[in-house]
């Protein structure tokens, strides 16, 4: 294609956008609505997912053992547990089905943590770091002198904590089953992910509630995912119809011109291209506006709601991301693809019928 | 060359527009096509530019077999022809220059070539001074000449003019015919579709008469007269009587 022809086609496409201003604006608005709705659902789903990623850690049961156990005895406990897992089939009381294979592979599911390691972890917490930052070094020194003259090493020597091993399992629904297996190990006690010791009898209401909350939120997330796909499909079809009507109005306004072009020997592609450019311009404009609206919604509205709710104690510790760095590229590409798809397909369909006749 | 071999054309509603027409128009010929309204003249020209497709028979136009042509080759065929429509089909929102340039633009001509050829052809039809005028500011004859310039600007092999003198006075029609003869002398095939018996007789060119979708007469314009028109009318009435019987 010659540059002059290329620029002529682009020029005709731009003219087409302004020919039916009202319909063009309507097309852009419908497409924006489609993109913003889909984009918002995506952001909500992603925020839920990223916030619950850390909670995956609660698929772990930590079993505290007596500190007087020797290393050999601890290894024996591990072997005993492995043996129980291998020889047991666990019944799922919900479905009434027998099932096994509830743990992740042996190498990863069993992790021993010594009492010293526990203590080091305690001093490595954010809260401890915060305290050391807030208090002046001389205050800490004076605290150590008065209450703990030998420093952390002295605590290590007389560590009140107990060693433990962690068992990771595949799904929350298997927690009770895993716990029942652990209960068969002699001389151990069970604690949850927060280190709270649990009675030997199962189930424990605290953990069960956490799990069901997680499962409920995940099912809401799944419903939102499915809903977003359906909504995108419905809105995309509506957008296609509106853009098709816009293009058809343009075609009707230029009917004689197009007929003459065809009689002069213009190719179908040459006739179609300006209308495709018109559709593409509509799509790109909609993508740009939708991106701006989404940026505002996320950075100001969503973050504002979360921070105000956190302030009043409504929602604690919900993590958000940077719109530009974390979502900018994905949403930009996504909106552009939706816009181009809608523009090209709608103009293609409306022109195809016309070029046939 | 244009060659019809037993060409028939039936519309979707069952109307037989052309029935077993066979004729040949050689390169560089000047031909009048005449016949009464509804005789099949328009269908014949539509077949030539592939606006309608042949139902049966063989049709060859400027090296293209139109009874077999693929749709992607139709633009190539149409670029070998320039058509002057009875209603001119000029675009009121474009200037005279833009109207003529448009015909080149849509076939992807270079801008340089457009700038060179459009003023030349406007000069040929004597409208250089009106290049910035809009069609609404032109007389019927001037519009006709713009339409001619637009048909000629892509250097086609064949010019088809549909009733070129239908909307103009005698003086103007002579000017248009002179223009067509000049184009013909350049080696282009010229096909003029007309009702104008006087025009046919005056220019003494080959006349193809179509009546009821059939080739009724193919003779020199000097020998074509009112009797041919009457004969066509009588034959039609005889056909009607046959149908009644």
SSE topology sketch:
The complex is a heterodimer of chains A (357) and B (245).
Chain A: H1 3-19, H2 21-53, E1 60-65, H3 71-87, E2 90-92, E3 97-99, H4 106-109, E4 110-113, H5 115-123, H6 126-134, H7 137-147, H8 151-157, E5 164-168, H9 175-183, E6 188-191, E7 197-198, H10 205-253, H11 255-264, H12 268-311, H13 323-356
Antiparallel strand pairs in A: 1-5, 1-6, 2-3, 4-5, 6-7
Chain B: E1 2-10, E2 16-25, E3 30-34, H1 41-48, E4 56-61, E5 64-65, H2 74-78, E6 81-84, H3 96-105, H4 111-124, H5 140-152, E7 158-162, H6 170-185, E8 189-193, H7 197-203, E9 206-211, E10 214-220, H8 226-244
Walk me through the structure:
The complex is a heterodimer of chains A (357) and B (245). Chain A has helices at 3-19, 21-53, 71-87, 106-109, 115-123, 126-134, 137-147, 151-157, 175-183, 205-253, 255-264, 268-311, 323-356; strands spanning 60-65, 90-92, 97-99, 110-113, 164-168, 188-191, 197-198. By secondary structure, chain A is α+β, with helices and mostly antiparallel strands. Chain A folds into 2 domains: 3-54 and 213-356, no CATH class; 57-204, no CATH class. A 5-stranded antiparallel β-sheet of chain A has the order 4-5-1-6-7. In chain A, strands 2-3 form a two-stranded antiparallel ribbon. In chain B, strands 6-7-8-3-9-10 form a 6-stranded mixed β-sheet, sandwiched between helices. In chain B, strands 2-1-4-5 form a 4-stranded antiparallel β-sheet, covered by helices on one side. In chain B, helix 3 packs parallel to helix 5 (140-152) and helix 4 (111-124) crosses helix 5. Chain B has helices at 41-48, 74-78, 96-105, 111-124, 140-152, 170-185, 197-203, 226-244, and strands at residues 2-10, 16-25, 30-34, 56-61, 64-65, 81-84, 158-162, 189-193, 206-211, 214-220. With 245 residues, chain B is α/β, with parallel strands linked by helices. Chain B has 8 helices and 10 strands. The mean pLDDT of chain B is 86. Classes of the chains: A alpha+beta (357), B alpha/beta (245). At the A-B interface, helix 1 and helix 11 of A face helix 2 and helix 3 of B.
């Amino acid at each position: 294609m010659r540059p002059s022809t290329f620029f002529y086609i682009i020029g005709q496409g731009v003219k087409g956008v302004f020919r039916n201003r009202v319909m063009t604006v309507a097309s852009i608005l419908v497409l924006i609505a489609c993109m913003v709705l889909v984009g918002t659902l995506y952001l909500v789903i992603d925020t839920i997912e990223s916030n619950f990623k850390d909670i995956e850690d609660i698929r772990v049961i930590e079993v505290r053992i007596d500190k007087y156990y020797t290393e050999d005895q601890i290894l024996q406990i591990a072997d005993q547990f492995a043996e129980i897992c291998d020889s047991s089939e666990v019944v799922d009381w919900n479905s009434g089905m027998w099932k096994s294979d509830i743990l992740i592979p042996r190498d990863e599911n069993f992790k021993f943590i010594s009492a010293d390691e526990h203590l080091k972890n305690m001093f490595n917490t954010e809260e401890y770091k915060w305290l050391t930052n807030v208090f002046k070094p001389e205050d800490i020194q004076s605290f150590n002198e008065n209450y703990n003259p030998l420093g952390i090493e002295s605590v290590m020597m007389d560590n009140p904590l107990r060693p433990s091993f962690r068992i990771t399992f595949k799904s929350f629904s298997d927690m009770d089953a895993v716990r029942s297996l652990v209960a068969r190990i002699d001389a151990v006690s069970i604690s949850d992910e927060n280190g709270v010791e649990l009675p030997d009898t199962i189930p424990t209401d605290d953990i069960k509630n956490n799990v069901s909350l997680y499962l409920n939120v995940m099912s809401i997330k799944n419903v939102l995912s499915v809903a977003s796909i359906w909504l995108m499909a419905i809105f995309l079809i509506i957008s296609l119809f509106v853009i098709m009507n816009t293009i058809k109005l343009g075609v009707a306004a230029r009917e004689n011109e197009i007929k003459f072009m065809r009689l002069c020997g213009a190719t179908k592609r040459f006739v179609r291209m300006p209308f495709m450019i018109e559709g593409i311009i509509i799509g790109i404009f909609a993508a740009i506006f939708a991106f701006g609206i989404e940026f505002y919604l996320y950075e100001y509205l969503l973050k504002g709601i979360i921070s105000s709710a956190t302030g009043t104690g409504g929602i604690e510790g919900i993590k958000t991301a940077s719109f530009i760095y974390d979502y900018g590229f994905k949403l930009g590409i996504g909106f552009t693809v939706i816009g181009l798809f809608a523009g090209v397909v709608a103009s293609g369909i409306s022109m195809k019928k016309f070029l046939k006749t | 060359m244009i060659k019809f071999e037993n060409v028939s054309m039936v519309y979707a509603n069952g109307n037989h527009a052309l029935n077993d027409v066979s004729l040949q128009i050689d390169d560089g010929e000047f031909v009048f096509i005449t016949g009464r309204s509804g005789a099949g003249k328009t269908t014949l020209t539509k077949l030539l530019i592939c606006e309608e497709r042949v139902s049966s028979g063989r049709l060859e136009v400027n090296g293209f077999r139109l009874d077999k042509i693929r749709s992607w080759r139709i633009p190539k065929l149409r670029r070998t022809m320039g058509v002057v429509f009875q209603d001119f089909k000029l675009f009121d929102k474009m200037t005279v220059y833009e109207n003529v340039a448009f015909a080149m633009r849509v076939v992807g001509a270079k801008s340089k070539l457009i700038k060179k050829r459009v003023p030349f052809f406007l000069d040929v039809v004597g409208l250089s001074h009106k290049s910035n005028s809009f069609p609404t500011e032109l007389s019927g004859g001037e519009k006709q000449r713009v339409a001619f310039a637009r048909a000629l600007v892509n250097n086609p092999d064949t010019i088809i003019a549909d009733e070129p003198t239908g909307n103009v006075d005698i003086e103007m029609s002579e000017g248009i015919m002179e223009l067509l003869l000049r184009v013909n002398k350049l080696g282009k095939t010229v096909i003029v579709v007309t009702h104008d018996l006087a025009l046919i007789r005056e220019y003494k060119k080959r006349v193809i008469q179509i009546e009821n979708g059939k080739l009724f007469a193919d003779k020199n314009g000097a020998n074509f007269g009112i009797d041919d028109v009457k004969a066509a009318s009588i034959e039609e009435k005889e056909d009607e009587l046959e149908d009644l019987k």
